[in-house]
Amino acid sequence: MATNSTSSSSEWPLLTSTLVVCRECLPGALPHVARSIDGYLDSFARGDALVRACRRGSSLRALEYLAARESDPCREDVARAAARSGRVEVLRWFLELSDRRGATDKWHVMDWTASRGHLEATQWLWANRAEVCTSLAVIGAARNGRLEMLQWLEQNVPVDDCVWERAIFHAARYGHLQVVQWLYPKQSDRRSGELRLALSFAARRGHDDVVHWLHSQRTLSSHVCSGIYR
């Protein structure tokens, strides 16, 4: 795939094919000529190759190669892809690269790992990177039906009560009955607007099990429940 470069460490490594062309056909070629040839021959590192490699959890060698050919590999889309891969080694690689390059952006990668239910990656971030998460971690986990993640967040991460109350709407909207049942006791106001919205959106999307269960709790007024089916 790639090869060691004879160029300075601040430049990306040249492809093996580029070095062969320069050695066999253009001996003594100037560096900028070699780089032009390299850019023409390179079909591997174009476009969003680094993002795609992070997302699929490619080898660290491949990630290093692609990052070396990027002018700015420490970007939000790369951070998001590394987090959503759920691979601890990919996350570690990206965050250490960001540290080495002095990147100061805060991407809240823990929000993304939690939203996708990547428990091991979230636990690693919490233990090793002093990461913080926002309400998006809880909301995302509820929306995606990640009950185990929600339970871990409750036990380990400070979360405002109002966030738990909002989360039930997202769980109901996407039909995650077990998550709705787990979140229900956290509702301080059993006649709240969030619960009415949860019931309404569950009905609109055809999540009958969620609708029937919420209705069975007898916490919403009868006219609200009956109005949903009109």
TrEMBL record:
<dbReference type="InterPro" id="IPR036770">
    <property type="entry name" value="Ankyrin_rpt-contain_sf"/>
</dbReference>
<dbReference type="InterPro" id="IPR052050">
    <property type="entry name" value="SecEffector_AnkRepeat"/>
</dbReference>
<dbReference type="Pfam" id="PF12796">
    <property type="entry name" value="Ank_2"/>
</dbReference>
<dbReference type="InterPro" id="IPR002110">
    <property type="entry name" value="Ankyrin_rpt"/>
</dbReference>
<protein>
    <submittedName>
        <fullName>Uncharacterized protein</fullName>
    </submittedName>
</protein>
